[in-house]
Amino acid sequence: MRLVHWIDGLSEKLASLVSWALLLNALLITFNAISRKVFSVAWSSAFDMQWHFFAVVVFITAAYALQKNEHVRVDVFANRIGERGLAWIDLFGIFFVLLPVCAGMIWLSGPKFWEALVAGHTRATRESSSAIPAWIILSFIPFGFALLSLQAVAEAVRCIAFLQGNDTGSRASRRFFDGE
Questions:
Q1: Dihedral over alpha carbons 159, 161, 167, 168 (to 10 degrees)
Q2: One GO cellular component from the entry (predicted)?
Q3: Whole-angstrom Cα distance, residue 126 to residue 119?
Q4: Which of 20, 41, 85, 149 could form an SS bridge with 102, CB 3.0 to 4.6 Å?
Q5: Which has the closest alpha carbon to 163: 90, 97, 65?
Q6: Long-range contacts for 95-104 (Cβ within 8 Å, ≥24 apart)?
Q7: Which residues pair with 122 in a beta bridge?
Q8: Across the strands, what pairs with 54?
Q9: Could you say which DSSP state residue 97 is in?
Q10: In the chain, domain spans
């Protein structure tokens, strides 16, 4: 369970750090809007940085959302199957849906990140003259899915411990008894 607590702590620390990035993004959006509307100066890199910040928030906080049971789910039979059934459903979802999707996304996005890093690609296109290196945002795709995988492993360990009779506060138990 020490590993589970370490993974939980990592998710929480990164989510806290990202919350400060949201403040920086709000300031950046404000600066960008003022520079465009008041001074008629558009900075394409500032616009790109806005969605970069948002993308980083999504990729980094996905693991935190899973840990806090704040992700989207549909529980049609939740009230009928009990907490052990919910733990089994969580385990099934983690091992047969979440972890394979995360592995696939890491496998697919890793080479794109590496290619952008080695070739020095930027975000510049016909529509944008942004000089922001593309590898920066591309690095958060495999990193975010790796974090989500780690948190999924922690949740699977919690479910297994719960099914073995150790009340570890599994997501299934919390969800069932909190009336979610």
A1: -70
A2: plasma membrane
A3: 19
A4: 149
A5: 90
A6: 95/156, 98/148, 98/149, 98/152, 99/149, 99/152, 99/153, 102/145, 102/146, 102/148, 102/149, 102/152, 103/149
A7: 133
A8: none
A9: I
A10: 2-177
Contact 113, 141 (CB under 8 A): yes
Q: Which one, of 140, 151, 134, lies nearest residue 106 by Cα?
A: 140
DSSP-derived letter for residue 122 is B
Joined tokens for residue 151: 């948190």
Sign of CA dihedral 99, 101, 102, 106: positive
56-82 burial, b for 16+ CB within 10 Å, e for fewer? bbebbbbbbbbbbbeeeeeeeebeebe
| CA separation for the pair 90, 175 (Å, rounded) | 11
Among residues 61, 68, 71, 70, which one has the least CA distance to residue 14?
A: 61
Considering the entire predicted model, what is its pTM?
A: 0.83
Which residue is listed with tokens 């944008």? Answer: 128
Tell me if residue 164 falls in helix, strand or coil: coil
- 19: DSSP letter: H
What is 24-39 written as a DSSP string? Answer: HHHHHHHHHHHHHHTS
Higher pLDDT, 173 or 103: 103
| Bridge partner residues of 133 (DSSP) | 122
Report the amino acid identity of residue 34: I
Please report, in angstroms and rounded to a whole number, the separation of the first and last CA atoms in the chain. Answer: 25
